[in-house]
Specification:
Blueprint lengths: L1 E4 L4 H7 L5 H17 L7 E6 L7 H11 L2 E6 L14 H8 L13 E2 L1 H4 L3 E2 L4 E3 L11 E4 L5 H9 L12 E2 L2 H15 L57 H19 L6 E5 L7 H7 L4 E6 L2 H11 L2 E4 L13 E6 L8 H11 L3 E11 L2 H9 L10 H11 L1 E7 L2 E9 L1 H8 L5 E11 L1 E8 L36 E6 L2 E6 L4 H17 L3
Parallel strand pairs: 1-2, 2-3, 9-10, 9-12, 10-11, 12-13
Antiparallel strand pairs: 4-8, 5-6, 6-7, 13-17, 14-15, 16-17, 18-19
């Protein structure tokens, strides 16, 4: 993080940073340092001082401040003195005119070059607005958007395609493999596509082979690789970890690595930058995230404070506490991957709804959600052994409810009704997921991790075709069997609802006319074919 200043008091600072407030700069600097210290982040802060004719007497004051606060210091020569500069001539209109000039001029990016101001730096003002780069004035023509509203991929694409860069003569550098990967990833996210190796087989959600076009789903082959050696600094086992048994030492690590492999395939070849292990426990899976994705930020969510303290201290996982009702947790935004293994298998249906309401809005534009459930295989084990899940679970009653409704839940103890065993048929799960317009179903594999594995992905733009199935059971339950509405994850006022022939589609209010027309045509054709 680079913080630029041009004075150590307000009068001097505002000569160059017109309209800026120095007290805001220092207050936010100290707040950032507190966050870095509290979460033990690797983020580095550099204080950059622009030396000009009017502020040279403040250089040592700035250097002393940087040393006192433990941040880096950089001294740069200012390009011009604000008092004699002709910058007032370079208005917003001037840059708009320049952007449209020389339409046949080739951009340096077309010859394998990239701008370091675009790939290495993000220019952000005091209002959290992102601008094209820090070499240009903060005019409206260069505004990209709000920092907190845009993912890293969106920031890169919006700046990379800016029309002014074609006529800018700022020195470029040769593009690296990392630059190329970032661009490819950004395009994949923008188009809503996964990218896998050619050896992966691709199937659609209904199991049909997808030989045409980009791969839309993945094959979950957890036995494709042997379990590697876990790093010594990630091998710690808590004495409170009930999933670990010394006689099954290798199996403990194998199960954790298998989960990582599933998530690795679901995430695509570039790997995630922000990962959440929801139901982290004592780190059976999270430790593999930390080993295999060392540059990613890994968060752990759990109701067990001892478990959160352990994974934070042992593996550097950032802790996020929650409650049995699956509320109260504050998830970061723009998450690339959420893994929820062996948690929904112990929750009631209303808790499933609470889980999706919490998690889906936190996913990035193309974020992936991997969950596991107890389905047909678990029900068969219960038929063979009604005590499969312990003496406190009435297996016969659980199975009877499952067969009748497609879902059943039984708590381990009457005085703790929020955790136990749940069974959910593939049909019940699919019907529930179809009611979440922000998610699309990538794959469903029975017993993919011992439990059923479902890979979901955030839609590029929310769209849901909701057609009620005659005679089907409503998969939405809450305490007392009162149905609850599924997932108001986005502001409904930002949507347009189109209903034709009994089919309703929600589209963003700002969708372009061509897309809107194609949606209407598709609904009209569907209604015509069905006699609507």
């Amino acid at each position: 993080m680079i913080v630029s200043i041009s004075g150590m008091d307000q009068d001097t600072y505002q000569i160059n940073h017109v309209g800026g407030k120095l007290e805001y700069v220092f207050a936010n600097l100290e707040k950032a340092l507190q966050i870095i210290d509290a979460y033990e982040l690797n983020t580095k802060i550099r204080l950059r001082f622009f030396n000009m004719e009017h502020n040279g007497h403040h250089i040592e004051l700035a250097r002393e401040y940087a040393q006192r606060t433990g941040i880096e210091f950089e001294l740069l020569e200012g390009a011009a003195d604000p008092a004699t500069s002709k910058d007032h001539l370079f208005t917003n209109e001037y840059f708009i005119k320049e952007s449209h000039g020389s339409p046949d001029l080739a951009a340096p990016e077309e010859s394998g070059k990239v701008c370091p101001l675009m790939f290495d730096v993000v220019a952000i003002d005091a209002s959290s607005d992102i601008y094209l780069c820090d070499a240009m004035p903060y005019h409206p023509v260069f505004r990209i958007g709000k920092y907190l509203d845009l993912s890293e991929d969106q920031l890169l694409l919006k700046r990379y395609g800016h029309s002014f860069c074609r006529v800018c003569n700022f020195p470029r550098r040769d593009a690296t493999d990392s630059d190329t990967q970032r661009l490819v990833r950004a395009v994949e996210v923008r188009t809503g596509r996964f990218s896998h190796s050619a050896s992966d087989r691709s199937y659609t959600a209904d199991g049909a082979k997808d030989d045409d076009g980009p791969q839309r789903s993945i094959a979950l082959d957890t036995n494709a690789a042997r379990t590697p050696q876990i790093a010594e600094n990630l091998s710690a086992i808590s004495d409170l970890d009930t999933l670990y048994g010394s006689e099954d030492h290798d199996r403990y690590f194998q199960i954790g690595y298998d989960a990582f492999r599933i998530c690795q395939k679901a995430s695509g070849k570039w790997g995630p930058r922000r990962v959440v292990d929801f139901g982290v426990g004592y780190g059976r899976v999270a430790r593999w995230f930390r080993q295999e994705w060392p540059d990613a930020i890994t968060y752990g969510v759990d109701i067990n404070k001892n478990a959160l303290a352990f994974v934070h201290q042992a593996f550097g996982v950032l802790p996020i506490p929650t409650y049995p009702q699956i509320d109260g947790a504050v998830l970061p935004g723009d998450i690339d991957l959420v893994f929820c293994g062996s948690l929904l298998t112990g929750l009631d249906a209303w808790q499933w709804d609470a889980f999706f309401r919490l998690v889906v809005p936190s996913l990035g534009p193309s974020g992936v959600l991997v969950v596991t459930t107890h389905g047909r295989a678990a029900s068969q084990m219960l038929r063979d052994n009604p005590r499969q899940f312990g003496e406190s679970i009435d297996g016969e009653k659980l199975l009877e409810t499952y067969v009748r409704q497609g879902f059943a839940f039984a708590p381990y103890a009457a005085d703790h009704p929020t955790f136990g065993v749940s069974l959910s048929s593939p049909g019940w799960v699919m019907e529930k997921l179809q009611r979440i317009p922000e998610l699309k179903i990538i794959s469903f594999e029975e017993q993919g991790w011992g439990q059923d594995v479902i890979v979901l992905k955030r839609n590029p733009w929310p769209m849901s075709v909701e057609r009620e199935m005659p005679g089907s059971a409503d998969p939405r339950y809450s305490p007392g069997d009162k149905p609850v509405d599924m997932l108001p994850t986005a502001d409904q006022q930002d949507r347009i609802e189109i209903s034709i022939g009994g089919t309703t589609v929600r589209v963003p209010a700002g969708v372009d006319r061509e897309t809107l027309r194609s949606v209407v045509d598709a609904l009209t054709n569907s209604a015509t074919q069905q006699g609507g």
